[in-house]
Amino acid sequence: xxxxxxxxxxxxxxxxxxxxxxxxxxxxxxxxxxxxxxxxxxxxxxxxxxxxxxxxxxxxxxxxxxxxxxxxxxxxxxxxxxxxxxxxxxxxxxxxxxxxxxxxxxxxxxxxxxxxxxxxxxxxxxxxxxxxxxxxxxxxxxxxxxxxxxxxxxxxxxxxxxxxxxxxxxxxxxxxxxxxxxxxxxxxxxxxxxxxxxxxxxxxxxxxxxxxxxxxxxxxxxxxxxxxxxxxxxxxxxxxxxxxxxxxxxxxxxxxxxxxxxxxxxxxxxxxxxxxxxxxxxxxxxxxxxxxxxxxxxxxxxxxxxxxxxxxxxxxxxxxxxxxxxxxxxxxxxxxxxxxxxxxxxxxxxxxxxxxxxxxxxxxxxxxxxxxxxxxxxxxxxxxx
Length: 385
What we know:
By secondary structure, the chain is an alpha/beta fold. The chain has helices at 7-14, 30-37, 49-57, 59-65, 81-91, 105-115, 130-135, 143-149, 153-157, 162-181, 187-198, 207-214, 218-230, 259-265, 280-298, 343-351; strands spanning 19-23, 42-45, 70-73, 98-102, 120-124, 234-237, 253-256, 305-309, 315-321, 326-332, 359-363, 369-370, 375-378. The chain has 2 domains: 7-124, 3-Layer(aba) Sandwich (Rossmann fold); 130-381, no CATH class. 42% of the residues lie in helices and 16% in strands. It has a 6-stranded mixed beta sheet with strand order 8-9-10-11-13-12, sandwiched between helices. It has a 5-stranded parallel beta sheet with strand order 2-3-4-1-5, with helices on both faces. The model has no long low-confidence stretch (mean pLDDT 92).
């Protein structure tokens, strides 16, 4: 079992709040992390129909039977419980009493905002970070290997074939989650939508374009995108908000949060295919984005991750930080670096004074070094924080 960096953050939050909610995609390791971090807590899986029926039919007695400390796993499956948790916490607010896990951000946040605001600490666990994998002595053989395998824990813990695992993951996700949230009669159409989204990773989102390709309405695509984001399959990255006196792009960019799932949806069957695949650059960019995001989340830091682009075509892939202090990061999947790799960062430096170490090109090669124009960082030396 691979140690997760977020364990200390969970313990810290549980010493301060009566309720801690751990969200993230299915199979990201939430249950394992919660049970390892809180070994003396009882454990209740709310996917179990008997437990769910008990909680739904008699929530007060259910909470008396599980008064805490307790882990309620997949708590979004029992939304009726949230209002009763409020009363239980108001009567007994000892820290760390309830640990909640959930794989749907929308349902979990809805229950929390209505009943547990001010009583709960929220944190998100994404699949393994590259740093966690290396810490377990599982340094990837190559960039193409990790892009193809992705970073879901079960694939690495059990050395599973990624294609077969992701096929089951998508089928399970469609059956268990999408049908609960959306009135979809044609699951194959939704799967087509997933693949069209995969083909657009790293691009500005265009709802109408996706709708036309899939054969659904613009509003349907908006609804389906919101479900993918709430289930931590994708993330919409917003543009950097600093005003440089230029017309800025306002649409968000779409990114998948796991390169292995993305490779599967793009029908990439082996790491070798990634050496020359037309989507190699976009997959690598998604990988870098996910690693930046995991680093922030695992450290309990605000995300503060954006992209920057103006209408003249100048852009920087990622801006990490605030309007007053930030890192500018470019993702280049090639194994060599040329002067042109710093083109976006050079323009950025004309808008904002920055040190070379604050301008970073993450690339597909193996050596990291500092240049006058900025930092060249091997993908192997991620993370950046």
